[in-house]
């Protein structure tokens, strides 16, 4: 049984549905692929590493000795920050799950507008197949606020047949 949520709070509703995606797709024969998340982490750690090097240079060297290095580090930090922003804004845009099966790869993007209880789902299965669908939240939640995982699994199974 799932945890009880307030189905009238859209952030809580979205979070519960997003957290259920790995379980649903593992039942459908997909294994989660973490490449997009790993890339985001590498960029973020690189930004932190540049900040740490900048701090160490500032601590160990005089101002004039470290000035050229600091300028390079600030420029590198700027470039990595822009890359990070672009990556999260345009590449990871609403992507909640990426998975692979023996025969295909799937990317699931979801969206839930504030005060709207329709869960917008976009399933991209391979380069040529894209299905946009809407899941009304009342179809997979009980009145009390429990997620019915079997109904969510059946709904995604039907949508994948369309893809």
Automatic annotation (TrEMBL):
Function in brief: Component of the signal peptidase complex (SPC) which catalyzes the cleavage of N-terminal signal sequences from nascent proteins as they are translocated into the lumen of the endoplasmic reticulum. Enhances the enzymatic activity of SPC and facilitates the interactions between different components of the translocation site.
Domain of life: Eukaryota
Any Pfam family hit: SPC25
The protein, known as: Signal peptidase complex subunit 2
Primary localisation category: endoplasmic reticulum
Family stated for the protein in its record: Belongs to the SPCS2 family.
Originating organism: Lachancea mirantina
Keywords: Endoplasmic reticulum, Membrane, Transmembrane, Transmembrane helix
The keyword GTP-binding appears for this protein: no
InterPro entries in the record: Spc2/SPCS2
Bilayer topology term: Multi-pass membrane protein
Subcellular location: Endoplasmic reticulum membrane
Gene Ontology terms describing biological process: protein targeting to ER; signal peptide processing
Transmembrane stretches, start-end: 41-57, 69-87
A GO CC term attached to the entry: signal peptidase complex
